[in-house]
Amino acid sequence: MSDAITILGCDGFIGSHLLEYFLANGNKTIYGFDQDTRRISHIVKSDKRFQFFQGDIYLSPDLDRCINDSEVVISLAALCNPSLYNTLPVDVIESNFNNPVKIVKMCTKYKKWLIHFSTSEVYGKTEASLHCDSYDLHCSDVIMKEDQSQLILGPVSAQRWSYAAAKQLLERYIFAHAIQYGLHYTIIRPFNFIGPTMDFIPGVDGDGVPRVLACFMDSLLNKKDLCLVDEGKNKRVFTYINDAVNAVKLIIDNKQNSVGHIFNIGNPQNECTIKELALLIIGIYQHLYPDCDKSLLNVKHVTAESFYGAGYEDSDRRYPDISKIQKATGWVPAVDLKTALTETMKAYMKKYASR
Ligand code: UGA
Q: Is the minimum distance from the CB of 168 to ligand 1 under 6 angstroms?
C-alpha cells in the first residue's frame, strides 16, 4: 500500500486549495477526481505527483484502484450552494447522500481512512432560537458542540433542509460503518470558509446564486446594491481557507487523535451578522479603491422568498465550539475577518475586474 491521498472534488474551492497545499508540501502522490478543471487547469499536467481523473467521479474506472492505493481519502464532492437546496432538491440529496455512500463502502472494504466534509448546517437552527435569544452567547444552547448539540431542521416542506438532512444522514451512515465494520473516519463540519476562488460570479463563470461573499462581490463588480436577505440579521462565522487547510493538515498529522471524531472547523472570533459583513466589505472596498463612486455602494433589503424562491429557510446563527479540534491537533485559527475579506476581495478584483 502507498501513502497516497485521494481527493474527491479536487477542483472545488476547498479541494483545489488542499491540492495546492499537498503538492507544495511533502512528497505524497495525490489522486484527484473531478468533473471540471476550472480551478486546477494550471496544475493538471505540470506536477508528476498529481494524477487527475476527469469525469463523473462515481463512474470512474480508476476510483476503486486509487482508493485501494491510498492511505487517506478526502471526500468533498457535493452540491453545497443554498440556492440549489430548494430548486434542485433531488440532485442535492443524491449528491450529498446517495453518491458518497459508495465512497463510505469502498473505504470500509479497503480499510482506508475517510476524511469526509460534512457541513455546519447539520446543526440547523439554534436550539436557543426555539426558546431563548439566539443572539445571547450566555445562552449556552447557542454554542455548537460536535457531540452534544441537538440537530434542528425545519419541516419537509421547507426544502432548504434537504441538504442538511442528507448531510446528517451521511454522517450517521459513516458512524454506523465505524460501529458495525470498524471504518476509520473523521468528519469535518466547516463553518463558512472564504477565500480566493470561492464560488463564481453569475453570468461570468457560473449561473444562479452563489454564497454570500460572491453575491456581494458580484454587486460591487456590477455596481448593484448588496442584497440583505431578511434584513441581514442572521449570523455566521467566516473562516479563512488557509486556516481550514491547516486544520486538515493537522488532522492528518494527528491521525491517532482524529480517527473516530467529528470536528467543527470555524473561527468564532470572526462572527458577524450578514449586515455587518456587507458594511465591512463596502468599507474595505472604499479603502482598496479610494477613487470609486461611493454613491453606488449601498445595501438593499430583500425577502428570502424573492431572493431564493419558495421553500427557503435559514440557520439563524452558527457559532462553533472548537475546543475539540484544538485539543486533538493543536489547531488554532489565525486569520481575522478583515484580513480574510481583504485577501479574498483582492483576488476577486484581480480575476474579474478587467473582464
Ligand atoms: C452555506 C451552505 O449551506 C453550507 O453547507 C456551507 O457549509 C456554508 O454555506 C459555508 O460556506 O460554509 P449559508 O451560510 O447559509 O450556508 O450560505 P450563504 O449563501 O453564504 O448565506 C449566508 C447568509 O447570507 C444567509 O443568511 C443568506 O440568506 C444571506 N445572504 C446571502 C444575503 O443576505 N445576501 C446575499 O446576497 C446572499
A: no
Q: Determine if ligand 1 sits within 6 Å of the CB of residue 212.
A: yes
Catalytically annotated residues: 163
Report the distance separating Cα 183 and Cα 330, nearest Å.
Answer: 24
Q: Grid coordinates 463540519 are at which residue?
A: 189
Q: Do 151 and 216 contact (CB within 8 A), yes or no?
A: no
Residue nearest to atom 16 of ligand 1 (CA): 82
Which parts of 180-280 are beta strand (E)? Answer: 185-190, 193-194, 226-229, 235-237, 239-240, 261-265, 271-273
For residue 130, how far is its CA from the centre of ligand 1 (angstroms)?
21
CA angle 271, 130, 316 (to 5 degrees): 30
Q: Which of 159, 229, 271, 313 to mutate to test the pocket of ligand 1 (most atoms within 8 A of CB)?
A: 229
pTM greater than 0.85 (yes/no): yes
pLDDT per residue of the chain (355 residues) written in tens, 0 to 9: 679 999 999 999 999 999 999 999 999 999 999 999 999 999 988 788 999 999 999 999 999 999 999 999 999 999 998 889 888 999 999 999 999 999 999 999 999 999 999 999 999 988 767 765 555 655 556 899 999 999 999 999 998 999 999 999 999 999 999 999 999 999 999 999 999 999 999 999 988 899 999 999 999 999 999 999 999 999 999 999 999 999 999 999 999 999 999 999 999 999 999 999 999 999 999 999 999 888 888 999 999 999 998 888 889 899 999 999 999 999 999 999 999 999 999 999 999 987 6
Q: Could you tell which of 92, 199, 212 is best to mutate to test the pocket of ligand 1, judged by most ligand atoms within 8 Å of the CB?
A: 212
- 126 Cβ below 6 A of ligand 1: no
**Phi, psi angle pair for 208, to nearest 5°:** 100, -160
Atom of ligand 1 nearest to the CA of 213: 20
